[in-house]
Amino acid sequence: MSELLKGIAASDGVAISKAYLLVEPDLSFSSDNISDVDGEVEKFKAAVNQSKVELTQIRNNAEKQLGADKAAIFDAHLLVLEDPELLNPIEDNIRNNKVNAPTALNEVSTNFITIFENMDNEYMKERAADIRDVSKRILAHILGVELPNPSMINESVIIVGEDLTPSDTAQLNKEFVKGFATNIGGRTSHSAIMSRSLEIPAVVGTKDITDRVKHGDGLIIDGLSGDVIINPTDDEVLAYEQKQKNFLAEKEELAKLVNDESVSKDGVHVELAANIGTPNDLKGVKNNGAEGIGLYRTEFLYMGRDNMPSEEEQFEAYSKVLKEMDGKRVVVRTLDIGGDKELSYLNLPKEMNPFLGYRAIRLCLDQTDIFRTQLRALLRASEYGKLNIMFPMIATINEFRDAKAILLEEKEKLVSEGVKVDDDIEIGIMVEIPATAALADIFAKEVDFFSIGTNDLIQYTMAADRMSERVAYLYQPYNPAILRLIKQVIEASHKEGKWTGMCGEMAGDNTAIPLLLGLGLDEFSMSATSILKARKQIKQLDQKEMQELAGRAINCATEEEVVELVNQLS
Ligand SMILES: C=C(OP(=O)(O)O)C(=O)O
Ligand SMILES: [Mg+2]
Fold it and tell me: Most C-beta atoms within 10 A of its C-beta, which of 58, 254, 278, 390?
């Protein structure tokens, strides 16, 4: 018998394959004393050797599939595995204290980790993280437990996990990973956003799929409806193969619009741009006919590694994107770390409410060395295309002024060093915080553009965590309160002759698009895979009529009423 599980549709498409369970294995052990000391030392040494073999494979695989920079993290792990300063004390601990190998390993590694973590030295802190990772691998081998290694997957699978961190997602190889399904998360959690740029179907927020599915179970995930079928019957597989075919046929049909303009029925042109996380996403940008990049989430450059990207590395990534976009506008957002996007090597404090905490521009204005390095890389890259710079999570006008002042200082320094910097870079902000939307008229006098980040704006306005499937019913993009904020921001920008875009997921949502067109949004930036569908829809809409529709929507009392209004269109 198959089993149906309902989740949240996160990325379009249908995947049919078998489950690869990506969950933390049980590595508990008892602290027994031992009599066969030599046997225990041998056990430990064998585990170290097995770890070496495994890590070397992982490293080589990562280099082949993901590039040398992603592989470097495993080089660091291999060095730890050969370090006598770590290994000898563990052996001594077994011999001198007659403790078993897991206990000896745990005591010595915890000791090193604590010492290194408390040093005021970034390099040593990174080593603490390496030791933690390597010790876990050795322990798994001692206990005979298999650790999941997503970067080693070499057959078709659907990943099943609690959640996928953005760096887990970045390591997935599309050739083998056909989709994923998670316990937690919503449509705007970053693993969901990344699954859309990777163009792999995903269902999130299933609550307990990891308890229901076993490694290797047959699985269907329907990223269009949010349904997951565990151990499907032959008939179900046939039906979903048909659904998959239909989806691909529709995609092919939409591909015909790739070079069309995005113009409404009554001739109003809007810009349909793409959101990207890394230069690797550019292929999808081109294949889907994006007219620019409305959001480049640069934080992904900082993830999945154990140290900061240098100015040079950043310069290369930014200039590559600018060159490949060939003069089309590229809005690069400065580092937006924090919330669900962690950087282990930054050792950020654990907070009660990370989405309301030390993140994004708050962190950059505090740790200005990180910020300045990024700005220099961006300014140097500016001569290769049409660069716009955007600051995330701006809450006050002073934050914007401070960030802009630092940017201008770095520009002046570069120019005095003889570096060419574009003079026409537009400097804008994300509108993600209700306070900023409320003061949009004040901001509009000083910024060059706004980009509304509805993923956060909705969660802050409704006080409903975007990561929580339990309060997902309150995460209401079409709530009239949200529509009023959007209207206010767009009108404020237009009054000052500026433009407003939207780079939250709402910009690509087919229910929202008629309303946003009516509210006068200038640029819609979305997952590249949503662009062609949005273009098709906009071509069929009359902007004047949508103005009227939006006027009625903002006076509705509930989200349901708004949805009903939009549904009457079709
Ligand atoms: C685009 C946004 O930023 P992110 O999803 O990266 O928080 C947003 O908040 O809408
Ligand atoms: Mg945001």
Answer: 390
- Asked if residue 538 and residue 411 are part of one domain, the reply reads yes
**84 and 120 belong to one structural domain:** yes
Output 38-43 pairs: Cβ under 8 A, ≥24 positions apart.
Answer: 40/94, 40/100, 40/101, 41/91, 41/94, 41/95, 41/101, 43/101, 43/142
Structure tokens at 272: 């349909």
32 in a structural domain: no
Contact in structure between 136 and 27 (CB atoms under 8 Å):
yes
Instruction: Lay out the sheet containing 8-11: strands in order across.
Output: 3-6, 227-230, 218-222, 14-22, 157-161, 177-182, 202-204, 8-11
Whether 18 and 97 share a structural domain = no
Q: Can you give the pTM of this predicted structure? A: 0.80
Tell me whether residue 480 is in a domain.
yes
Residue 263 placed within a domain = no
Convert the pLDDT of each residue in 236-290 to its tens digit.
999 999 999 999 999 999 999 999 999 999 999 999 999 999 898 899 999 999 9
Residue nearest to atom 3 of ligand 1 (CA): 453
ipTM for this model: 0.99
Residue list, ligand 1 pocket, CB within 6 Å: 295, 297, 336, 432, 453-456, 503-504
CA of 19 to the centre of ligand 1 (A): 30
Q: Is residue 260 domain-resident? A: no
For residues 370 and 498, state if they share a domain. Answer: yes
Number of domains in the chain: 3
Q: In which domain, by residue range, is 88 found?
A: 37-143
CB-based contacts of 259, cutoff 8 Å, min separation 6? 289
